[in-house]
Design a protein that fits this description.
The complex is a heterodimer of chains A (308) and B (538). Chain A has 308 residues and is mostly helical. Chain A has twelve helices and no strands. The longest helix of chain A is centred in the middle third of the chain and has 37 residues. The chains are: A mainly alpha (308), B alpha/beta (538). Chain A: Belongs to the binding-protein-dependent transport system permease family.
Amino acid sequence: MTAVLTWAAWVAGAFAGAAALGGAFRAVVWRLLGGPVARAVRTMPLSAAFGMAVIALYVVVALLAPWIAPFGEREVVGGQYLPWDSTHWLGTDNLGRDMFSRLIYGARNTVGIALATTALAFGVGAALGLTAAATGGWVDMVLSRIVDLLMAIPALILSLLLLTLLGASIPNMILVIALIDATRVFRLSRAVAMDVVVMDYVEAARLRGEGLAHIVRREILPNAMAPLIAEFGLRFCFVFLSISALSFLGLGIQPPTADWGSMVRDTATLITFGDITPLLPAGAIALLTVAVNFVVDWQLHRASGLKD
Amino acid sequence: MAGSLLLDMRDVHIEGRSGDAWLPIVKGVDLQLHRGEVLGLIGESGAGKSTLGLAAMGYVRGGTRISRGEVTFDGTDLVTAPESFRRGLRGKRIAYVAQSAAASFNPAHKLIDQFCEAPVMHGVLGRGEAERQAVDLYRRMRLPDPEGIGFRYPHQVSGGQLQRAMTAMAMACKPDLIIFDEPTTALDVTTQIEVLAAIRDIVDQSGTAAIYITHDLAVVAQMADRIKVLLRGDEVEEAPTREMLASPRQAYTRSLWAVRSHRRPEQPPAREAPVLEVRAVSAGYGAVKVLHDVSFDLHRGRTVAVVGESGSGKSTTARVIAGLLPASRGEVRIEGRPVAPSFKARPKEELRAVQLIHQSADTSLNPKQRVREILGRPVAFYAGMSGAKVEARVRELLRMIELEPDSFIDRLPGELSGGQKQRVSLARALAAEPRVLICDEVTSALDQIVAEGILKLLDRLQRELDLAIMFITHDLATVRAIADGVVVMKGGRVVDEGTKADVFTPPHHPYTELLLSSVPEMDPGWLDRVLEARAARA
């Protein structure tokens, strides 16, 4: 009974804390900024404010990692698996490195790489998808069949294959994951754009003699934005998982670079002893994922015109 | 003929939510309906006609609520009644016929299955009885092949037949009240007349009360015993049909009656060479030939109206001229020079010369672009202007279409009314400084008063800019208002052609005669006369 109550108290506390963080963030940004941004911020829901606050926190941590972290990223500072204490706030890992410091450096690596990968996947996938829909004919046929071909191979096997061929390095991993995710983005943006290209205003633009670039960028893209934004949030989370999976298999982020995916693996043994330390990097991923999706939901709401 | 009081709506207020506020849609309307009586409800769009019609069933759309008033149906207040009670009434004692039958039928089920659903669910009839009832009603609605038509899917019958099938469906449980929500608005005049006749007969025979919602006065004159006029959620006036038509009391009602008074003065026949010549054009989609040997001319400063029912090839002709559908035979000449069949092969100057305005302003303006960009882009694109010059030209265009530049230049299409959107798409065409304007049913989605404004605007711009206009429409009242020449099309061929006076004065071509006689007139006896005349001839 008490255990249940304690849990309930924790959960309620977490919700209250999240709401308070969101509210405070919203209030501060509103005071600091002016103009249309302030108006957008003031009307945003609490969940989006919370998400923005968390993302801002991650960004600050990632940028200032060397100054915030008490120890170096790769520095062996003590014995293996030290418990939480005043020097090593979250203890040490299997090689005696400071968990707290690695968690902070991990933000830099994992978030940065995931963001770069997702952005690349979207840039390439959406550009090709919209072009395929706007052009039609053999361009669409060739691009779509190439994408079908890539999607027919299981994603993990394809990425393992490519990374083995190209050699495991961070740029290669970004390229490979971006390529695989771009196929998904391609299909979505092509499907969305198919509904837009048949509209009369696209016909009007074509009749005016507009080129492909204008039609894709000014006529189609703004109207395909809402589902693409939603997909961005989801894709960002999938990319996280892909990076973690590859790191776990040894082809992703190479040790001793700190990364949340491999940190889970490194300290996994501790779970058996009832220690929650391995869950912290996983929790960091989960929190960011939730935060990104809160913000994306809000943007989606705005972009799709469902304003109230 | 009126029986006891069936529906009594008192002081009904309906509100719709917009953000955090509730805005009034219907502001305290009273409505009484007796058994066997037909009430016409008219007004412009946004007047609250459909909302009030649905409220008569105790139903409100999502995001709206009945905030005050009572809707007493046969002694029970539907506003306070439990939902289960209201559900029991709907489809059984109160039925609803929607505007677009094509969108209201489930495309995955046969007509007769959808017919039987309500009576079987309400326990009024067994399945076998319901099917016999369906065949009987299909016959009374004068549907072809009444035994077999129920076993078709919605896409296998025409729009007019679907609308009749839907009315038959509404009659399935012999309801006390049917609400018709613009049942013929989406139909051609030639089809409309059949549906109107069928609806009126069946309502007369079964003694059902009905609320008939429409914005077409001539239609309501044929159908209703009484007419109620609504304006922005308020009642303007109510009177028996003949009285209302003969002497409307309110200024607003008179303005509705006076609409379509616009008449273009007769123009002398054009002497110079035509701007646009369509020469023996045939075209089609794949193996399906849509146009056969279509020819006509268009002169500077003149309007040619192209009329015909849907599927007659009016819009296809426009697409051939614009180059969207290359002709398989024949050619299109602009100012004497033949142009390339496909718009892709036409140089900028030729593209600029012919501008197409689409029927639906909702889909012809990019919802994510502001008016500034919608108009500024063609200005910059064709005239090679930039910066402040573009802005000045956009403002000039807005003034031409009678919209105040300062308040409209930064709006998104979602912030414009239907008429304003159509004006902006007109301005976008004018931005190219064209010689030929093709208007594809540009007023058919608009209310009469708004449409009238657009027609006057087109007329003024034509005189100022010396434009040649090809005006596609199925509405002959519009033709009378604006055309110099008329081209009548049927089945992808030109069946009649000439000046307005030629085409509209007897003797007519038989098809023109059918079209002309199908246009509803304000006279309440019109429908009977036409039907009698046709029966006598047949």
